[in-house]
């Protein structure tokens, strides 16, 4: 099995580690509650989960796996509030389709049908709405899914941001496939499908008028085909997650907490393209926490890791796939990064969000 750069070695003692921040206490919603980090987790844990209840929701995956008429169905919903609406490599319409298709794919499901809700601000140009709709329709056709129902609402001027979208999707999970965060076990190999941080920096560059030597385009893409390729190697994929809000750092923390395992990653093995690394250094951002919209992280049994990686590398959306670490029994629920200088740092769940309104 091809390892990530650097040996894991003996695990440091994190038994005395604790968060230096007190428990957040927010009587009002702040932007960080939508960032996919610790504030988002608290909102779900203390507000939504107690109100809704139920064992399916408690799984907190990218999509819910349910049984309907004898078939295993994946069901997911998502809302999109990106600003600007159009950016290098994509648009809010592309995000709405690909984000929902990818949530279904993270359960191993092949997406079939989508719903779409448009929330429009009074005064937005009809041509802009049409452009978003056309992008959404084209993305759905490219992903092989059909938009079968929808809704439109209009809010007063000043109470929106042009166009917000909500999409929900359903797809069927193949027999023998059981992919969920709780299945990660010590010994699993952690693989990412390609370069990280691209989408977040692409959106930020347009929003803030930043110019780089090379234009950075969003990695927005539907990952269903890549997941099918991986499942063709083995149905025994343990976990799949698309690291959107909160980036790879948040995704790994969520998986570690759900499965009660530790995760060790090798910093030098993580594929971050030079323009993204430079932009993050300029903006004071950590690429591990920057959102992606066309990448996935996989936890794969060690005996299948080489074959799965080879299949990913042969697919256009996995051409830059890399092994970045492994699951361990030590420090359960915690993610640790081995730095290029030989040190170790804890990759904590982000409190808020580095880049708001990017998905």
From TrEMBL:
Superkingdom classification of source: Bacteria
Give start and end of each PurM-like C-terminal domain.
186-331
Tell me any Pfam family this protein matches.
AIRS_C
Report domain PurM-like N-terminal positions.
61-172
* PANTHER family named among the record's database cross-references: CARBAMOYL DEHYDRATASE HYPE, HYDROGENASE ISOENZYMES FORMATION PROTEIN HYPE
Family named by the database record: Belongs to the HypE family.
Name this protein carries in UniProt: Hydrogenase expression/formation protein HypE
Name the source organism. Kitasatospora cystarginea
């Amino acid at each position: 099995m091809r390892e990530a750069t650097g040996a894991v070695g003996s695990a440091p003692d994190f038994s005395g580690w604790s968060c230096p921040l007190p428990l957040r206490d927010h009587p009002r919603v702040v932007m960080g509650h939508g960032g996919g980090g610790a504030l988002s987790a608290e909102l779900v844990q203390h507000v939504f989960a107690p109100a809704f209840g139920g064992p399916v929701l408690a799984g907190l995956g990218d999509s819910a796996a349910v049984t309907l008429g004898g078939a295993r169905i994946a069901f997911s919903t998502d809302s999109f509030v990106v600003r600007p609406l159009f950016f290098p490599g994509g648009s809010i319409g592309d995000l709405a389709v690909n984000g929902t298709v990818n949530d279904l794919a993270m359960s191993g499901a092949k997406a079939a049908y989508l719903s779409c809700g448009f929330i429009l601000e009074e005064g937005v140009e009809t041509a802009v709405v049409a452009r978003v709709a056309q992008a959404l329709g084209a993305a759905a056709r490219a992903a092989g899914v059909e938009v079968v129902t929808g809704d439109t609402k209009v809010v007063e001027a000043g109470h929106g941001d042009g166009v917000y979208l909500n999409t929900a999707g359903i797809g069927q999970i193949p027999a023998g496939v059981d992919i969920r965060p709780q299945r990660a076990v010590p010994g699993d190999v952690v693989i990412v499908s390609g370069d990280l941080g691209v989408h977040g920096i692409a959106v930020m560059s347009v929003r803030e008028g930043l110019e780089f030597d090379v234009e950075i385009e969003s990695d927005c893409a539907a990952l269903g085909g890549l997941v099918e390729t991986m499942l063709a190697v083995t149905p025994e994929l343990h976990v799949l997650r698309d690291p959107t809000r909160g980036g790879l750092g948040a995704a790994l923390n969520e998986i570690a907490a759900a499965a009660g395992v530790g995760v060790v990653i090798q910093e030098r093995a993580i594929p971050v393209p030079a323009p993204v690394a430079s932009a993050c250094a300029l903006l004071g951002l950590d690429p591990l926490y920057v959102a992606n919209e066309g990448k996935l992280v996989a936890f794969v049994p060690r005996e299948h890791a080489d074959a799965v990686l080879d299949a990913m590398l042969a697919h256009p959306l996995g051409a830059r796939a890399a092994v970045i670490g492994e699951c361990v029994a030590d420090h359960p629920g915690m993610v640790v990064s081995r730095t290029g200088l030989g040190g170790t740092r804890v990759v904590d769940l982000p409190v808020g969000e580095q880049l708001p309104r990017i998905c």
